[in-house]
Structure formats: structure tokens, C-alpha cells
Amino acid sequence: MLYGDSCSGVPGAPHERLFAAVNAVVRRLEPPPEFIVFPGDEVSGLTADPAELRAQWRHWLDHEMAWLDRAKIPLWHSTGNHTTYDVMSEGVFRDMLPHLPRNGPSGQNGLSYWVRRGDLLLVFVHTLWTGLGGEGHVETEWLEATLLAHGGARHKIVVGHHPVHPVNGFSGPYQREIGPEHAKRFWGVLVAAGVQAYVCSHILAYDVQVHGGVLQLCTAGAGTAHRMPEGVEYLHCVQAALDAEGLRCQVLDMQGQVRERLCWPPALPPVQAWRTLAPGSQDAGLVADAGAGHLVALRFRATAAASGISAAQTLFCTYRRGETPLLWVGLRGPDQTLTVLLGPQPGRSPHLWWGMGPRPGAEFDIQLLIHTAMGPGGIMVRTAEHEPWSSLVAASPWGAERLAWPERWAIGQGMKDDADTPFRGEGLAVSLTIEGHLQGPSWVGTGHPPRRLV
Predict the structure, then answer these.
(1) What does R_g of the chain's alpha carbons equal in angstroms?
(2) CA-to-CA distance for 257 and 250, rounded, in angstroms?
(3) What contacts 432, CB < 8 A, 6 or more positions away?
(4) Dihedrals phi, psi of 392, to nearest 5 degrees
(5) Which residues make beta-bridge pairs with 298?
(6) Which string of DSSP letters, residue by residue, matches 138-176?
């Protein structure tokens, strides 16, 4: 079970009531979780009075979490900006959570640590270490050494409070994500070690994206009475399962309803089996069955246009007559940047995703994956069949789950005619596959993904 950011510990405060509602969902799960990961901000904190901070922790541990038998279901925490914001609060964190392992780097015992459970390694990092600069600062040498020392673990999960990659367009070094002098090195360590996921919170949302094949899973819906953004995100907890097939998650709201799902890695047929699409504009059933819970993968092969071309170039688009494209994939700007536009609502500006495009004049092979149940992180790219997926950059809080898939589509040109934003390179070949992804292996210990609570 993964959930974080309750910011509670104050009797009678609004966050206490909301945290209790989320806990009620966790308590009714059958079977119960084997362990709980809480990636920070358990209590409201942010006080200069250590006695007040300890009182909040006591209320959170002894009252709000009194239902949990921690001898049977371990509860592991990461530090957070509400709980470890200065040297005093770091000391209180250590004192109030004495069960956390003291195997972290020098100066961070009880703040950073690792846990080994059979073939699973959990590494908890301190993304606010005062010894390095405070909020948004995290060390990487101990992290790398720990992952190397446990290289034989089949599953590796790293947990910290701050995201590395911006979530829902909420971005700002140090305050909202790990600082840039640490972020590239930090993520490179995860990729090199074969980590499956980095679990974080801080941004009050559920979000999942992938970079270099490593998931960033953000869960911050355990009771804080704000959303990022309001009207889109919701209070939640995440039930997860790990086995030889990979990672599967389902996100439960306060009513215990499954709101979102993830099965990772995605299962796609070999690219040679994908359907080849004819160039030009077509009016035939192609993607009408690609609703929520599907993977839509497109492969684009061509020779890019020469340098000096900045106008938009269409690779693929879908549309309804008389409307702007619902989905547009192409190249834009002097660097021929790969760009995806989603416009699910007529009269509203489309949302934009972008990533590295081809070199001018060079041959390219770009594979685009649209995961219709993965939110904004579900628009991904790779440059070869066995390369890892990486989410395109976006500032949207939603993704292809809002997209209607009409039957009209165009290849190498816009929806009007062959003079509408044409591809200006040579030899464009496009292929596609549509796969269902929710009919995956059964959940550990359940025989099926639990659709209701008991």
C-alpha cells in the first residue's frame, strides 16, 4: 500500500477527518497489505516548537494510526517538508520513528535507510537534508552504493518525498522537485541500477510517468485538503503488487472505487506485426476501439526534412469534420521537435506534449505509445523496439483518457488536404497497433484485481 501527505496530527482539524476517510479504505482491504509505504508529510509540522511537533506525531501514531498492527503490517516512512524542515525537526523525526533502520549515510541515520524483504529492496532517501542545503537537496553516492550492493534484488523501489520530474505542470526547483544539480545524477543512478519505480508525494495528486524505463509514481492524497489541481485530483491511496510480471497498481478513492490502473511494463506485439497505414487522409475504422484501458502505439520511419524547416509537419492526426484535430502528432520549430497535441474539447486550446525530435536530414525511427489510462505521463516515446520508454514533457494534469477516437485520420498531412501542414521529409512509413492492457496477470494473493472492498 502506498499513500502519503496527510498533514494531520492536530485533533479536530479538517485533515484529521479526511485522513480517517482514506484510512477507512485501507482498513477494509482484503487481503490486507503486506506493508505500507508513506512517502512523507504525515503531520502538519512546520512549527518551531519541538514539543508541539512531538505532540502532533504522538497523535498521528497513537490515535490516527492506532488501528494498524505494525508488528504484522510494517509502516515505513520517508522524510517530508512538513516533518523535516530543519535540524530540530530531523531530530524529532528520528526520535518519533525509532523503528526505522539506522543504516543510512553519515549524518542521515534514521532519515535515509534501506529495507530488504526477500527479492525486494526498498531504499528511502532524504530529499531535504540540512547537511546538503535543505529542501530539494539529496545525496546520490550512498544511494548508488546501496543499489549496487543489492544488485541481486529482483525488484528495487526508491522512495523519497520530492518528485524529480514535474507533476501536472506544477514545477519549481527545490520547492516542488529535486534541485537541478542533483536531479540528473539521481535519475541516472536509478536507471543504471534497474530500479522499477521512484515513489514520491509532495505534489497533491496521483501521477505516474516514466523516464529511461523507470517509473515516477506520485501519490499525495492521504488527507491534505487541497488538490493540484482542484477538480482533477482526488484523495486516494494506491494498492500495488510486484511479481515476475512487473508492477501493477490500482488507485482507490475515498469511497473505495478504483479510479485509475497501471500495469507496467506494457505488453506490445513485435513492431513487425503492427498494421501499416496508407498515406494521405482516410475515412475508415482505425482507432475507434481505442478507449480507456488501451495502448495505442505508432511507429514513424522516414528521413527528416533538411535544416531550415520550422513550419509544423504532420506525421499523424485524427479529427472530426469541421473541428480542429483531436490528436495531432508531428514536428514543429527549427529543431523539428516531436510534438503531440490533444484537443478533446472543441473551442478550448489543445494541451501539448513534446520531446526530442530527429536530426535534420537524418533517418529516424520513432515509436510513440499512448497509454489511455496513465494520465499525462502516458504519452511516451522510444527510438527502438528494445529501448526504454520515456514520457514526453507536458504541463497538463490529464492525458489521453479524455480523448475521443474518431474514425477519420490522416498520415503525413493535416485534415484538410495534402497542403495542410505536410511532412517535408521523405519516405514516411507509419504503422500502428492497439492493445488492451488491463487483462493482465492476477494480483498476488487475490486471484483477481479487487474491484470492491469488503
Answers:
(1) 23
(2) 10
(3) 274, 275, 277, 286, 287, 296, 297, 298, 299
(4) -70, 160
(5) 368, 432
(6) ---HHHHHHHHHTTT-SEEEEE-SS-SS-BTTB--BTTT
Edge-to-edge order in the sheet of strand 393-394: 280-283, 408-411, 313-319, 327-332, 337-342, 351-355, 393-394
| Range in 124-133, 275-284, 336-345 with the lowest mean pLDDT | 275-284
Q: Could you tell me if 452 and 256 are in contact, meaning their C-beta atoms sit under 8 angstroms apart?
A: yes
Angle (CA) 302-306-312 rounded to 5° is 75
Q: Tell me the C-alpha to C-alpha distance, in Å, between residue 441 and each of 267, 434, 452.
A: 12, 19, 18
What grid cell was written down for 17?
A: 477527518
Identify whether 346 is preceded by a cis peptide bond (ω within 30 of 0). no
365, β-bridge pairs: 301
- pLDDT per position as a tens digit, 204-229: 999 999 999 999 999 999 999 999 99
pTM surpassing 0.90? yes
- Rounded-to-integer distance, Cα 42 and Cα 57, Å: 8
